Amino acid sequence: MTYSKLKNLFEEQSLLNDINGILCWDMATYMPAKSRNQRKKQIKVLYDYKKKIFNEIKKNELFNSIEELKLDHKDRINVELMKDKFEYFETISFDRIQKKTSLSIECEGLWREAKEKSDFTIVKDSFNKLMKLIKEESEILSQKKQLSKYDCLLLKYDRSLTSKKLKKLFNHIEKFINLKLPIIEKNQKNETNLLDANKKLSEEEQFNLSKVFMKKLGFDFSKGRIDKSMHPFCGGSTDDVRITTRFDENDAFSCFDALMHETGHALYEQGLPSNWAHQPIGSAAGMSLHESQSLFIEKQLIKSLPVSKYLERILQEKLGKVSKEWTSQKIFKSRNRVKKSFIRVDADEVTYPLHIIHRFNIESKIINENTNEVHLPDLWNDEFLKIFGMKVDCDTNGCLQDIHWFGGDFGYFPTYSVGAFIAAQLLNEIKNQFPTLNTMLENGDFRQIIGWLRTNIHQKGNESKINQLLTTSTQEILNLKYFKNHIINRFVKGNF
To answer: N or C: lower Cβ tally within 10 Å for the chain?
Structure first.
């Protein structure tokens, strides 16, 4: 009975998270500009309810009453995940959590204005207050867990990651990129078989194109929707997935690419085990796995040469793009151009990890070395120059380009690149499983691929850490060779 009681209480807090997800989606899309203070009060009430739930668990000492030996394997995992969540709320007071949440909402609002005006000083004071709370939280967790402060923040987004593991991965991949990048740039330097820069797809055309692919990929529109926001994301709640995208008139596929990325997230959410809904084990297995699903769809599949052939056909049949300009070769080569740039979300697959390493270095300095965040533009620009050899020209192209830090998300960025490494390993296994993969992709037939992901990733929920899950699905732990092979095949050899 004690375990049943715990499951009911965790279901309640999961439903509160769902409500919070819808409120946050609304805040990023349709909420009136002057409603932010009221939204802070609404979200505070949700945390008051969460506090009551965890106080009940603590008061009745429910974890001490569970006879775990009588539970089956998955129930025991669920209990351990419950304990992890409970430990966080037991360690960090709800007053502190609510204060951080309120500051995050305030800071994010100021970030929007600061980014538009390219002026960090607009958000500096609010960001400083928010970072003070994040640093204090990391210190409290560090003393509790006997881990580094930054590792404690990483654990909030992925229980598989440590800064030691990340440094090893990132050092290896940075050397690889710096070795291959000059070769790739030289190969692409004289490439002429590219889309005309003046050829555009309107916002409406990109939306229509995206919907065709989303349906083909299996996104359930009866349990999800698309909207616009300043920064693309996938949010919402259980059985109500909200995807947002952005539109750049200078990029023919900006809206489409953003939606393909978020569709990967959405498919993961829609594919989680329904019999474990609202339980910790029924959630996604960390943000690295989540990012692996988005990058698998956006990068590994949709930007491949076989899917470019299908894309050419859809552009002709659905959008009337029948000129010789919209050929699969031009689409493939244009959408896989490699060039260092300021903006992470616009970066190609080769230079993208450098953006993540750049942010990882800054996060480590601010949290572990206690570097003062009020000098973020200077810190950002100095670190960017070291990695990219480019001087940042303005705050919008620099420290203001991402929403994450100003919403309180420190420790999230590394999951993007770990997700990319996982995605490459998953595709390698799928190639082994489906010898006719190229033909399937050229015909826009994603059913068996998504089915494999459903069985081997989505339906597993939060049952395993990364290496356990990969060992089961690909017969080995995370291996960088698959990402490296992918980069060589696509960007050096021009295949897939």
So the answer is: N
